[in-house]
Design goal:
The protein is mainly beta. It contains no helices and 4 strands.
Length: 80
């Protein structure tokens, strides 16, 4: 319980720990909570990184060859 008086200040509650304190001691976090100094922490820098686009296209390519089917009469013993 806050027993001191501050002119122009009001009593507020920390959104994380629930303790009562003067509103001038609360800070706004990156996710819009009003918290005390013990509950406040900065946003992690890894959360604001953007990914780099990965170009997966090949520099050149050939069209796929058509399938060629052979029968048993197409290959003879001399071919082997």
């Amino acid at each position: 319980m806050i027993t001191s008086f501050k002119a122009g200040d009001w009593v507020a509650i920390c959104d994380r720990c629930g303790f009562k304190m003067h509103a001038s001691r609360l800070k706004k976090t990156w996710d819009n909570f009003m918290v005390c100094g013990r509950c406040w922490y900065p946003r992690h820098p890894q959360e604001t990184l953007r990914g780099i686009k990965d170009d997966q296209t090949v520099p050149w390519s050939r069209p796929e060859a058509t399938d060629t089917f052979i029968t048993k009469d197409d290959v003879t013993a001399e071919d082997l």
